[in-house]
Amino acid sequence: MFDVLTFLWNFLREHGIDAVGCIVVITLIFCGCLLAKEYGKDFFRRLLFRRNLPYLIILLISSVLIMLAVYKKWISIGWTILILAVYILYAVSVFRSMYKKTWLIERFAKRVEPMLESGHFMDCSELLEKRPWYLLDFDEQLEFKLLKASYFRGLGSYNKAYEIYHSIDLKCLYPEEVMKVVTAEVYTLVQLGNIRKACEVADREMQSDSVAYGALRSWLSELSGDMKDAYTRAVKAEDSIPRGYRDHQSLYNLHQQMARIYHMQDNLSEAKTYYSLAYDESKYLTDISALSGLYENYIKVLRRLEPGGSLEKRLLQSYAQLAKRGGVNNVIGYFNFVLHLTREEGNRQKIYDCIITTYQTVHAMLKAPEQYMVEVSALGVLNSESFDPSEILHDIRNHFDDYFRAPMPMRINLLQNLVLPSALPEKELPMFMEWGERLAGYGATQAKDDLDTYEQTLPADSVNERCWINDQRIDFERRSKHDYNGEYVLRLLQDNIRTYVSHSDLLHAANEEVRLINTLFELVELGQVPDNANTKARIIQIHNSAMQHIDGMSILNTLDTRVELAYYALLLGRRPVAVQLMQPIIALKIPLAPNQMRSLEVGEHLKFVCEELEITLRQ
């Protein structure tokens, strides 16, 4: 090595290059050799890839100009060093962009991503209105589009998100980026209820990567209810893993999918094996929130195979540490899971301690006004378990007046969810009676103005928030009196349906149509809507529309909607329609929970329908 350095030094000096120039040339040569050794053909393929070609040309021209400046001594040593520093900074940024985000988009993403992850979509709406002027190159524009698509998904405008994913030119992407964009596009199509098109996109764009493609298509088959095909595709993908395959995200997805399939088949030993493989791959991933499902499912399997084992305890500790790194939402998810495990043990004191520990931990992580939501949520959890809420009431008492000044929509959520506890100490009853009067007064007077004002601030594509506002209006109207304004409620529900349909979110539209049918039956009982043939025809028309909206969608995603529609089909005397709705559920042997059977009478009719189609429902 020393001989090589000496030779290069002497050769350059003999050709009139000064010491600084020699150092620059030798450094560039050795950097190139190290990069070639580290990345080999993959590095040069990326460097010469079409979108990097302009930057490569700039680098080469800059190198020639710097060498000439040094050789001809056009500029002083001080200026030479400054130019070299800028040049090296630019060169590093170009090389870095081949594997990571550029510094500019990374800085921009650090401002936007926390807002998206925490659900504060309104806070980042102005940042995403248009692309900032300094995000100029292809990498930055790509990352900006992905951020904006995530924003639209958060708003509930899935068709806008799909349009962004669909507009990206996949020919200009590296293979791992193709997988990232296509997967996001497929997920968005699933949210839109278009499983058929999601399969077509995966088939068209991802077959070159057998592992990523197999995992994704297996998941789509699972959603469609074809578990045999889901298993076959996953096994085929596993058998086709190339030697030296390094895409940890795809391996994680495939192992996770295999584990879940075996888990659903109750083959716990195989499920454990694949959860372990997925866990090994998860150490290379950075999206902490996406790993919670792995930890929870893995621990559930271990609790059945090896109750109280050391591996289960280590995983719980690892999950806790991971959640802390991921922020408050991940911490809440972790504690909810721990509460689920504690409830399975049936020890009420442990359940109470877990709820209080969760509350104290999360409450300390937040500041006002976010703390207020934790207070009300904890009160609701204690109420559901019939526990004494005194531990929480102190904080609620101190902040109660602030609830009415909290920002929207938090204000509505706080005041809607603050309910009278079932195990309220007698001494606290007068305080809650006073609170109840203030809450009722707010609902009767100020709530409407707050909702109207908030609606005016929303972006046009804010689907979820606009429908949420109508839901609150309905709730306030129904709470106000027994004989509520039925036509007003029907109009709001129809507005929601139109909003969802206009944004291609047909599953939510179908669910709103189910609510509309339920409301019409209720209004018939109240005498606000006549019980005649016209009303029945109106309900049947809505019922047909809901069925049309879920046609071709995933059976698993539409399970509750299908059962509800089958329930109303029987009420309407449309037994063949009920059979049509239940048949795919029965064919897949999907068990129904007791609450899905609704009333005893109609539940029994559904049971008879199921028996005729040769299924036994676990109730």
Task: Explain briefly what this protein structure is.
With 619 residues, the protein is an all-alpha fold. The protein is 74% helix and 0% strand. The longest helix has 29 residues, at 19-47.
What does the model show?
The structure is a single chain. The chain has 619 residues and is mainly alpha-helical. The chain contains 29 helices and no strands. The longest helix is centred in the N-terminal third of the chain and has 29 residues, at 19-47.
Radius of gyration: 30 Å
Structural class: mainly alpha
Low-confidence stretches: 37-41, 614-619
Largest sheet: none
Shape from CA axes?
globular
Q: Strand fraction band?
A: under 5%
How many extended strands?
A: 0
Gap between N and C termini, in Å? Answer: 76 Å
Quaternary form: single chain
Mean pLDDT: 83
Helicity level, as a percent range? Answer: over 70%
Spell out the helices and strands N to C: HHHHHHHHHHHHHHHHHHHHHHHHHHHHH
Individual helix count: 29
List keywords for this structure.
74% helix; disordered C terminus; 619 residues
Secondary-structure map:
Layout: H1 2-14, H2 19-47, H3 53-72, H4 77-97, H5 103-118, H6 138-155, H7 158-167, H8 175-191, H9 195-205, H10 210-223, H11 227-239, H12 248-264, H13 268-282, H14 292-305, H15 310-326, H16 328-345, H17 348-365, H18 370-384, H19 390-403, H20 410-417, H21 429-444, H22 446-456, H23 463-480, H24 486-502, H25 506-526, H26 533-550, H27 559-571, H28 575-587, H29 600-612
Helix pairs in contact: 1-2, 2-3, 3-4, 5-6, 6-7, 7-8, 8-9, 9-10, 10-11, 10-12, 11-12, 12-13, 13-14, 14-15, 15-16, 16-17, 17-18, 18-19, 18-20, 22-23, 23-24, 24-25, 25-26, 25-27, 26-27, 27-28, 27-29
